[in-house]
C-alpha cells in the first residue's frame, strides 16, 4: 500500500478511530507544562503540584531511558489534524506475568467528553494485548471521577474492588477504584483493531 501523506506528518502506527498515539518528543514539554499547570486537569491525577519545565525535562530523560522496558508513554493526537491533546501510557510493565497499568490525561480541556480518551484506551489495549502479549491491563481511578469511570466502562474495563480512603485531595480522603481488562475480554470486543484501522490509510 502506497503512503501518499506528506513526509513530515507523524507515522500513525498506533491508532484508533479518532486519534493516534506517538512517542513524546522534547518539543512537547512546553505543552505538558501548560497542561499540568491546570488545577482542573490535575485534579484526578497523582500530581500534587504543577510541573516546571526543568521537572518535565528530568521526567523526559527518565521516560526515554525506560521506554519499552518498564513503560510505554505516548502523546495522543487527533487524526483529523495531528494536534496533540493529551498523554497515555502503559506503566509498571510485568512481562513475566503479563500485567501493566494504564494511565491517561486529556490535557486540552476543550477536547473533553468527545470520546478521544476511550478511543485512545482502545488503541493502547490493542497494543498491549496484540503486540506485547499482555494478559491483563489495570488502572486506578479516583471515586469522584465519574467521567473517567464511564470512559473505562465503555472500553470494557470491569470494577474489581475499592481501596477505601486511599487518596487524599482537597482536604478529604477519597476511595480509589481498581478496574481491569483481561485478554479474553479484549478479544471478544466487536470493533476494529488498531492494525486494521492502519490498513484503511
Describe the structure.
An 8-stranded mixed sheet has the order 1-2-3-4-5-6-8-7. It is globular and about 45 Å long. By secondary structure, it is of the alpha+beta class. Helices cover 30% and strands 31% of the residues. Helix 1 (29-35) crosses helix 3. It has 7 helices and 8 strands. The longest helix has 15 residues, at 116-130. The protein has one domain: Gcn5-related N-acetyltransferase (GNAT) (Aminopeptidase, 3-Layer(aba) Sandwich). Residues 1-7 have low confidence and may be disordered.
Describe the biggest sheet?
8 strands, mixed
Strand and helix order:
EEHHHEEEHEHEEHH
Q: What's the gyration radius in Å?
A: 17 Å
Given as residue ranges, the uncertain stretches (5+ residues, pLDDT < 50) are: 1-7
Second-tier CATH architecture: 3-Layer(aba) Sandwich
Name the average pLDDT. Answer: 88
Strand arrangement within the widest β-sheet reads: 1-2-3-4-5-6-8-7
Helix content: 25-40%
Report the portion of residues in β strands.
Answer: 25-35%
Number of domains: 1
CATH topology: Aminopeptidase
Number of helices: 7
> What is the chains' assembly state?
single chain
Secondary structural class: alpha+beta
Give the termini separation.
Answer: 9 Å
**Strand element count:** 8
CATH H-level superfamily: Gcn5-related N-acetyltransferase (GNAT)
Q: CATH first level: which class? A: Alpha Beta
Bulk shape: globular
Amino acid at each position: 500500500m502506497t503512503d501518499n501523506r506528506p513526509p513530515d506528518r507523524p507515522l500513525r502506527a498506533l491508532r484508533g478511530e479518532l486519534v493516534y498515539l506517538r512517542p513524546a518528543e522534547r518539543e512537547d514539554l512546553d505543552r505538558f507544562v501548560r497542561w499540568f499547570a491546570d488545577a482542573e486537569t490535575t485534579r484526578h491525577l497523582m500530581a500534587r503540584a504543577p510541573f516546571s519545565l526543568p521537572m518535565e525535562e528530568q521526567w523526559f530523560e527518565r521516560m526515554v531511558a525506560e521506554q519499552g522496558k518498564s513503560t510505554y508513554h505516548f502523546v495522543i493526537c487527533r487524526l483529523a489534524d495531528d494536534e496533540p491533546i493529551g498523554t497515555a501510557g502503559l506503566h509498571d510493565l510485568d512481562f513475566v506475568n503479563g500485567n501493566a497499568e494504564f494511565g491517561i490525561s486529556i490535557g486540552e480541556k476543550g477536547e473533553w467528553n468527545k470520546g478521544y480518551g476511550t478511543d485512545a484506551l482502545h488503541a493502547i489495549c490493542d497494543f498491549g494485548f496484540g503486540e506485547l502479549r499482555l494478559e491483563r491491563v489495570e488502572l486506578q481511578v479516583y471515586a469522584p471521577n465519574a467521567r473517567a469511570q464511564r470512559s473505562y466502562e465503555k472500553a470494557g474495563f470491569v470494577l474489581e474492588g475499592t481501596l477505601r480512603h486511599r487518596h487524599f485531595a482537597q482536604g478529604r480522603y477519597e476511595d480509589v477504584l481498581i478496574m481491569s481488562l483481561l485478554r479474553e475480554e479484549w478479544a471478544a470486543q466487536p470493533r476494529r483493531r488498531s492494525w486494521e484501522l492502519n490498513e484503511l490509510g
